Please model this.
Amino acid sequence: MADLHLPTTLTPLFPGLTRRVDVEAGTVLAAIDELEAQWPGLRDRLVEEGPALRRHIHVYVDRERAGLDTAIEPRSRVDVIAAISGG
Amino acid sequence: MARTLLLVGTRKGTFLLESDADRRDWELRGPYCEGWPVYHAIYDAGSGSIFAAAASEWHGSAVWRSRDLGETWTHSSEGLAYGDDAGRKVSKVSSLAVSPGGRLLVGAEAPGIFESRDDGETWSLLSTLAGQPGSEVWDDPANQPPGHLGISALMPDTDDAARFWTIVQGIGAFETADDGGTWTPRNRGLRRDWPSEWEEVGYCVHRLVRSPSDPQRMFQQNHVGMHRSDDGGHSWTEITDGLPSEFGFAAAVHPHDRDTFYVIPLDPGHGRVMHDGKVAVWQTRDAGSSWRPLRSGLPQEGAHLGVLRAAMTIDASDSPGLYFGTSTGQVFASADEGESWSEIASYLPAISSVEVAVLD
Model:
């Protein structure tokens, strides 16, 4: 299971969602879709038309900047960051 | 006893101000919507719900809903998208309206109108005004800077759900009579001080309001001038003479008198704040032949306030209450048609919109 870390701006939007979630997925997009299955609407908060990561949502897999199709290993750490975008 | 509820959309969430029927003492609640930038918040009398069009820099656009006057909130963006292959994105939802019958409309940037027939649970695309003159310009992302609203306003007809008006920011006003199937530009007679490659569009309509007592009577605050229509928006006559400037954003129309109308003129330069640091709402009682400032109770020194296009409203009481919010977070209210004012909130985030509801 990969260890997924979510931003504080996301968790209040979905009852029961926690900052750390275990996911079993092969890519970043698959991990987000796994969350979507449990918290409908969550994908829209991270992914826009394209599909592409929203402009100020940054994802790191094992500390490397990642995209939606970046592979996730079973023991990966995935950080989803709400990057600074103004005051 | 009737209560009056003000819905205030701000740069950092929705706030509610509530008063009894006297509209003198106000209680502030909020912020709601997790502090997302809220472009427009409205009350739907049919469902008793509050809706707020919001767009987070991080998490995108959604319409928030509260069915219990702000106690609890949910949000949805299901269907609020043009699709992965459309070549255009929903970067913002900026204007809300309720059609007769209860259907919700929301306007977006890139310009498009979405509808919801299930109280905001899900949305579907109604129209992008595709093919209208100017659409190739507004579809260019280069013409969609961060502050741009796209569909900056939606104005439903009072009886016919298939008829409504919309403003495409920087392009002009359009009317549909067949629920977005076809559109007609409604900008004839407007002034513009810039070149345009189109005859019927290329106007900068800031705010469009319609008289509840005479549906043929409309007013608009334009980038260059105040204008009146006596034929349902088919043609416009400028009525700027007597105002301190031609520029402003906000406007409101008296609910019972077709000739009475309110605007907030601003300095047209980069500041876009009130003239000389003195706050005033300007009123006409003769359909724009003459204007007078309403200042009693409003700051008259060092008050360089701005008011955005959706940030003034009026209630439908016998003695209508008038309300406006500023881009520096003050809300001013009048319970006597603007004759006297009081500051009912002082330290809110920058205000995008103010709407009013009278609850029984």
